[in-house]
Amino acid sequence: MHSIVHLLNHTFAMYQQPNNRLKNQTCIVTGANSGIGRAVAMSMARDGANVVVNYVFGDEAAQQVVDEIAQMGGTAIAYKADVSKEDQVIAMFQETIATFGTVDILVNNAGLQRDSAFHNMTLKDWQFVLDVNLTGQFLCSREAIREFLRRGPRPDVSVALGKIICMSSVHEVIPWGGHVNYAASKGGVMLMMKSLAQEYGPMKIRINSVGPGAIKTPINRPAWETPEAEAKLLELIPYQRVGETSDIGAAAVWLASDESDYIHGTTIFVDGGMTLYPGFTENG
Ligand code: NAD
Fold it and tell me: Does residue 198 register a pLDDT over 90?
């Protein structure tokens, strides 16, 4: 047993090693001053990408991510923009191109929840979640694709013209009562991603989603912060651990790299098996 644990730790340490798969590429990560976006930004930088740390609130937290990237020898800038606002998204891409020359990778990560029973849901809360989670991904994807097409191929850094990774959720397929606005936004992300992949595959723009299960971040703190809550959550996870943000960072970097060049138009679920509907193990 001891040697297996040792081997696993060794393997994990190896997999954390940087290997410059994204060297000389530039990556915009939206919502990168917290949780999953933060880990994705760090992972992209660890693999050699210049990173734009987008955020909407929390200047200090964004600067911290930039500083940590600089400490490990990487390059990053923080950029404040609301992804649901067209003018701000356009300005963010302009600033990125002015700073780094182009954009190679977009990670559409920014997202939020405004939960309530459906019959109590306000139009404001419905609209807000759709605006950030879905329209935000539309606006950023459109600017990224415009830039990929304008700039043309960079065969020295990637075989693809550009890469887009949409942060979706297991709730693009698992219905979620009490969170109808959120589930609808992620269902929308799924078909936006697939339709874009169909439309722009011929131009060598590679587009996929990551579908996290339960990952420990501020968005879902009540679901894991007490032992009771965590035990209840684990009933939904066959692999019996709550996910870490680094689990998503690793998947996103791989999807951005040429190692995954034949993965196109799909969602990689990173969920410990949550999409296996474990409630059916002893029921149904
Ligand atoms: P988080 O609350 O820690 O981070 C969300 C980030 O989005 C923050 O940086 C926030 O500033 C940013 N953001 C919010 N509105 C924005 C806007 N208008 N413009 C720009 N940035 C904005 O949450 P997280 O768990 O890290 O979530 C990140 C993504 O992962 C979301 O899309 C979420 O739906 C998805 N996700 C998370 C989980 C999970 O278990 N944590 C599971 C499935 C999917």
Answer: yes
* Placement of tokens 């209840």 in the chain: 232
Question: Are the beta carbons of 210 and 137 closer than 8 angstroms?
Answer: no
Residue 277 lies in a domain: no
Residue that has been written with the tokens 């990637």 in this structure: 158
21 C-alpha to ligand 1 centroid (Å): 25
Rounded CA separation 113/180 (Å): 10
Tens-digit pLDDT profile for residues 90-115: 999 999 999 999 999 999 999 999 99
Question: Is residue 14 assigned to a domain?
Answer: no
pLDDT of residue 284: 80
Would you say residue 89 lies in a domain?
A: yes
Domain that includes residue 75, residue range: 21-217+244-272
Which residues' Cβ are closer than 6 Å to ligand 1?
A: 30-31, 33-37, 54-57, 82-84, 109-112, 132, 136, 167, 169, 212, 214-215, 217-220
CA of 211 to the centre of ligand 1 (A): 13
What is this structure's pTM?
A: 0.95
Residue 225 lies in a domain: no
User: Which of 89, 108, 210, 219 to probe ligand 1 with, by most ligand atoms within 8 A of CB?
Assistant: 219
Q: Provide the CATH number for the domain around residue 102.
A: 3.40.50.720
Q: Measure 247 CA to ligand 1 centroid, in angstroms.
A: 15
* Residue 16 clears pLDDT 80, i.e. is over it: no
The residues annotated with a catalytic role in the active site are 182
Strands 205-212 and 76-80, by their bridges, are unpaired
Instruction: Return the sign of the alpha-carbon dihedral for residues 6, 7, 10, 11.
Output: negative
Which has more pLDDT, 208 or 8? 208
pLDDT class of 2 with cuts at 50, 70, 90: very low
Structural domain count of the chain = 1
